Amino acid sequence: MVIKVLLVDDEPLVRAGLRAVLEAQPDIEVVGEAADGAAVVPLVRSLRPDVVAMDVRMPLMDGIEATSAVLRTVDAPPKILVVTTFENDEYVYGALRAGADGFLLKRARPAEIVHAVRLVVEGDSLLFPAAVRELAAAHGQERGSTEARETLARAGLTDREEDVLRLMARGLSNAEIAARLVVGTETVKSHVSAVLAKLGARDRTQAVIAAYESGFVSPA
C-alpha cells in the first residue's frame, strides 16, 4: 500500500522539505500541495489523499477551520496531521479538538516525520502521547465543559473499556494494551471500537481529548 499525502503550508520551503523527506520512502507519495487551508477541500475531493499534512497557521483559512471543513464536507475523509512550529500551542489543541488525528513539529527529524505519517494511517496508537498530555494540561481544563463530562457519563463504558481508554491516553498501542490486560489484540481492537462509538469519537485522539476534558484522565 502506498500512502498518498497532501501537503498544505503557506511556506514553500516547508512544503519542499516535507516532500523531499516523504518521497524518499517507497511507501509514501506526495500527490499534491496547497498554500492555504481554503484550497484543501477541493484538493481532498479530487486527489483522495490518505493523509493531509496541514500547517496550523495560514493567512486565509487556518488549520483548525480547514480540518473542520474537511471532516464536515468530505465523505471518508483522510487522516489529518497538523504541522506546527510550537507543540504547546492553543491552535494545535484547537485542531485536535476539531478532529485532527495528531500533530507534527516542523523541526522534527526525517525519521519522525515518516513515522508520524505511517502511525496516523495505522491508527493503532496515539501519536506523541506525552505532548498530547502537555496540551491537555495547558488547554484542556479551560476547554473542558459540563458537556464533556455528560458525554462520558452517557457513554456507559464498561470497566474494561475504561481500562482501555486510560491506557490509550497513556499512548499504548493495541498490542501493548493487549499485553498489559492479558487479552488478545483483536479483543483490544473491539474494545477500542466500542469506546470510540460510545464517545462519538472519530478516532483515538478525539477519545483521549474527551477523556482529559471530562476529567476522566488527569494530564498529570
UniProtKB/TrEMBL annotation:
<dbReference type="GO" id="GO:0006355">
    <property type="term" value="P:regulation of DNA-templated transcription"/>
</dbReference>
<keyword id="KW-0238">DNA-binding</keyword>
<dbReference type="InterPro" id="IPR001789">
    <property type="entry name" value="Sig_transdc_resp-reg_receiver"/>
</dbReference>
<dbReference type="Pfam" id="PF00072">
    <property type="entry name" value="Response_reg"/>
</dbReference>
<dbReference type="GO" id="GO:0000160">
    <property type="term" value="P:phosphorelay signal transduction system"/>
</dbReference>
<dbReference type="InterPro" id="IPR039420">
    <property type="entry name" value="WalR-like"/>
</dbReference>
<dbReference type="InterPro" id="IPR058245">
    <property type="entry name" value="NreC/VraR/RcsB-like_REC"/>
</dbReference>
<protein>
    <submittedName>
        <fullName>DNA-binding NarL/FixJ family response regulator</fullName>
    </submittedName>
</protein>
<feature type="modified residue" description="4-aspartylphosphate">
    <location>
        <position position="55"/>
    </location>
</feature>
<dbReference type="InterPro" id="IPR016032">
    <property type="entry name" value="Sig_transdc_resp-reg_C-effctor"/>
</dbReference>
<feature type="domain" description="HTH luxR-type">
    <location>
        <begin position="150"/>
        <end position="215"/>
    </location>
</feature>
<keyword id="KW-0804">Transcription</keyword>
<dbReference type="InterPro" id="IPR000792">
    <property type="entry name" value="Tscrpt_reg_LuxR_C"/>
</dbReference>
<dbReference type="GO" id="GO:0003677">
    <property type="term" value="F:DNA binding"/>
</dbReference>
<dbReference type="Pfam" id="PF00196">
    <property type="entry name" value="GerE"/>
</dbReference>
<keyword id="KW-0805">Transcription regulation</keyword>
<dbReference type="InterPro" id="IPR011006">
    <property type="entry name" value="CheY-like_superfamily"/>
</dbReference>
<keyword id="KW-0597">Phosphoprotein</keyword>
<feature type="domain" description="Response regulatory">
    <location>
        <begin position="4"/>
        <end position="121"/>
    </location>
</feature>
